[in-house]
Each structure stands twice: as C-alpha cells, then as structure tokens.
Amino acid sequence: MASNPEMKKPHGEGVASGKSSTFSGADNRKHTTNQGQATTDPIDLIEDACIEATTSAPPRHLILSKPDRWLRFSSTGKPKDKNCALKVIDKGDCYVFIIKDHRTGVTKTGSTRTGKRALMTPEEKAAAQRQRQAYQQVQAERSARKHRMLSAAARRIWSRCLKPEAWTTPFPYVVKKGIQPMNVRRYISHKRDVLVLPMVCPMQGIMSLYLIYPDGFKRPLKGSQANGLCMAIGRSLSDAKVIWLVEGWATGVSLHKLRPCYG
Predict the structure, then answer these.
(1) DSSP structure string for 211-245
(2) Which of 9, 28, 96, 215 lies at a C-alpha separation of 20 to 30 Å from 255?
(3) Model pTM greater than 0.85?
C-alpha cells in the first residue's frame, strides 16, 4: 500500500515520544455486527497503527495470517523493499502487535484491546481463524508445489553433469583441498564451471543441489529446499555401520579416507 496522507487517522491514546511508541485502539472506528453490537475490527486497528508508524501497511488479508511470526512489508511502494516488519501475537481476547521500520528506526508496540469489552464476538473470532488457516493452507500448497518443481529440475541437472572420470581437467577446489572427487559431478558450460553435490532425502532421493565454484564459493541451488537434506559419502546410509556427521563435503571426504573401514 503506497503512502497516502489521507490514510493517516488520529488516535486517542498511545502517542509516541522518540523512536518508540505505543498504540491503543480505544477511540478508533467501529462497525456493527449482525447482532447489533458495536465492536472494533482488529485488522483496522493494526492497519492504522502500521500507517501511523511507517506510512504504509501490509495487505489486509495478510495482517492476521502469520501469528507470532514477522511479516515483512514495504513503506516505499517497491515490492522488493521489505524494510518494515509486523508481528501479531494472539492473546485470546485481543491481539498484541509490534511494528518496526528498519529504514527510520521507528518501533511501535500496541494492543487491539478496547477497554473492558470483548474484542470480537465468537463468530468473528472463528471467521478470523478460518481466514488464517485458509491462507496458511494455500501457502503450504504453493511451497510444496515449488519444492516438487525444483526437485525435478535438480534431478535433471544432476543427470546432465559430468562424472569425475569424464573430466578433462582437474577442478581447482578439489586440487586445493587435496581430496578425491567422491560422489560429486561437474557442470561445465561457456559461462560457468561448478562442482555439483547432490543433496538427498533418504526417502525421496535427490531434492536439491549444492554448488561449489572454482574459487571456493558455495551456495545451494537457488530457491530449492535446504533443510533436512544430507549427502552420503562412501556407503549408503542404510548399509553403513558407523555414520560420521560433518559440516562440509571436503571434511567428509577427508574423514572417509582416514577411516575407510567405517565406510
């Protein structure tokens, strides 16, 4: 949401001093429920607090979608400029929120509690929970679909890489470490020459790739899964009597050569 002076609304309580402020929703706008009871919309209160602190706010459908987690958003209107953050904590009868603008250093904390009245009716609370669960389900499905596509791409890249016996020149990183190229392959094109390590899930096979450049720079395949994966050197994990856990591939190859009887 872009900055707009007309979107700034006065608040009755919690005026800031310095770079830290608090917010209370006692005098904010209200709407009428189906039962005719006046209540305060927590999304409106949090959105107003974000605008007051950062001149912007995240999309309304995202404000309550990530409880107890930081939600990054932009105050400049640029999608990639995630310089602001919002955390919403569900306390049962109200929401506590923290807003940070890393560009200006402003921090705002507050609550959507409005006096002693209940924040939401049970129907509103259930509707908000359903909305949050639906959003989380959509995000989980998107993440799973993305990981499946990237895993398939990783397996295709791995199948096209050169095995060590097909290399015409040694790889600089392997020469520098003084080790053998075990369980790795090499991707060579007119633009790059990288060492490719397979990152596997014991139940699903190759899920991602880890790349090592000639100068020693390392990174996983962009966008692919990184957590919960490993690489086996020597025997398969199911056949090994002793399993050594190490941080890097070069360390694993060195230990494997020092303890060949352990596989």
Answers:
(1) EE-TTS-EEEPTTS--TT-B---SS-TTT-SS---
(2) 215
(3) no
**Do 115 and 59 fall within a single domain?**
yes
Structural domains counted in the chain? 2
User: Would you state the structure tokens that stand for residue 91, as one six-digit string?
Assistant: 């306390």
The answer to whether residue 215 sits within a structural domain is: yes
| Cα 228 from Cα 208, distance rounded (Å) | 11
CA-CA distance, 52 to 54, in Å (whole number)?
6
CA dist 142 and 219 (Å) reads 23
Residue 128 forms part of a structural domain: no
| Nearest residue to 84 via CA among 59, 64, 67 | 59
Residue 222 has pLDDT above 90, yes or no: no
Query: What mean pLDDT comes out for the span 239-262?
Result: 77
Residue 197 structure tokens: 């390590």
Q: In the chain, how long is the greatest CA-to-CA distance? A: 80
The sheet with strand 218-220 has its strands ordered as 185-188, 193-201, 205-212, 218-220
Residue 189 has pLDDT above 50, yes or no: yes
- The residue among 68, 90, 120 that closes a domain is 120
